[in-house]
Amino acid sequence: MVSRDPRRASLHAPRLGHENRIFLLTLASGALPVIVLLLLMWLGPHETKTRWTVTLVVLALWIGFATAVRASVARPLQTLANMQAALREGDFSMRMRRSSTHDSLNDLVFEVNALSDALRNQRLGAMEATALLTKVMSEIEVAIFTFDERHRLRLINRAGEQLIGQPSERALGRTAAELGLEDCLEGETARTVDRTFRGQAGRWGIRRSEFRKDGLPHQLLVIGDLSRALREEERQAWQRLVRVLGHELNNSLAPVQSIADSLATMLKRQPRPPDWEQDVATGVRVIADRAESLSRFMRDYSRLARLPKPQPREVEIGTLIRNVAALEKRLPVAVEAGPPITLALDPDQFDQLLINLVKNAVDASLETSGGVTVGWERNSHSVDVYVRDEGPGIMNSANLFVPFFTTKQGGTGIGLALSRQIAEAHGGNITIENRQDRRGAEARVRLPLS
């Protein structure tokens, strides 16, 4: 039988049920012919026994027919109610049998079965998504907490348990103040702080946002340890710096030491060779050249490490590009004009960026007697400034932006590194790739419009 809600039944209970109304309506529809038939039977010349027999048969058929109609109406409704109750309870295994006829009841059965299939698929998808979310939360290395409107903990992952030093069984239901997280639910929604959790001091990234559950406001708190990542980045930066400095110092000091040893040995010889003065002069000149090279290296490094903060002002990008193209005298630089665009830039720094890119493009094109083209394009949210050459292309793109790495004779290796630093200081980025339409490379600087 169908389970009914007693509260709903008490509030909205009709005086007569639907099945009983069908039963009475069926009786009423057959009442007139039954009465007429019985009157004819009792008023006609029939024996009493025959009258009673016919009367009982007619009444039995009348009531039996009404009962059958009531059952044929009530049975599908009861089945539908049972199936809806099963759907409400989360049981999607029930199905109603469809008949071979095409009528409204058959259409209703089809729709109810389709609803059950849709709800089952939705529940299966929700269960899979929940399982995936639970797995991700348990494996992720950042601590995740959710608090209700009273700042009571409602959800925590494994990293969060490790952060506060309590299992979820003890932590759930406790307030943020009791867990030592009250200050994390206040202040800016995204910030970086230096603080201590369970005696572990470090730099932490805190992100907070709000959401609603069951119509009530909740807060999502995410805390990540930035110290480890920062230490790893710092370690790699020091390794790169030591490697570059060691390489340059060895290149300068090794020949200085060798020449100094040779000169010292020569000066100790008696008698000295006739051309010893020339050898001393040559050695001193080599030592001076290497000292100048080392001084130039340190000057270039200081320039890269001490790039000042940009001082932006409104600049028409086309004018700036044309001025830079006109500075190159070794090769004519073609300018492909784009739409008029005004950007907030530091013109001195951006001039240096474009000069470096154009110089590299001209160096490459001179090897193959090719040309160089500069231009700009506007996208939906950014402006692209490109420099295209017809040189031999890029052989090794992995080291393009590595400071002091260069394949040019006499190159410093800081031009592209400085250019990328300038682009990023303006909120943009720079890419250099081989061209697809022909031989050569294309450098593209993307800057935000705002």
Strand content bin: 15-25%
Overall shape: it is: elongated
N-to-C series of helices and strands: HHHHEEHHHEEEHHEHEEHEEHEE
What is the helix tally?
A: 12
User: What's the overall average pLDDT, rounded?
Assistant: 80
Strand order of the largest sheet: 2-1-5-4-3
Describe the structure.
- By secondary structure, the chain is α+β, with helices and mostly antiparallel strands.
- 54% of the residues lie in helices and 18% in strands.
- It contains 12 helices and 12 strands.
- Strands 2-1-5-4-3 form a 5-stranded antiparallel β-sheet.
- Helix 3 packs parallel to helix 4 and helix 8 packs antiparallel against helix 9.
- About 1% of the residues have low confidence.
Task: Outline the fold blueprint.
Layout (H helix, E strand, L loop, with lengths): L5 H7 L5 H26 L4 H41 L15 H36 L3 E5 L5 E4 L1 H7 L3 H4 L4 H4 L10 E8 L2 E14 L2 E10 L1 H42 L7 H30 L7 E4 H11 L5 E4 L5 E4 L1 H22 L3 E7 L3 E8 L25 H11 L3 E6 L6 E8 L2
Parallel strand pairs: 7-9
Antiparallel strand pairs: 1-2, 1-5, 3-4, 4-5, 6-8, 9-10, 10-12, 11-12
Helix pairs in contact: 2-3, 3-4, 8-9, 10-11, 11-12
Quick take:
54% of the residues lie in helices and 18% in strands. The chain has 450 residues and is an alpha+beta fold.
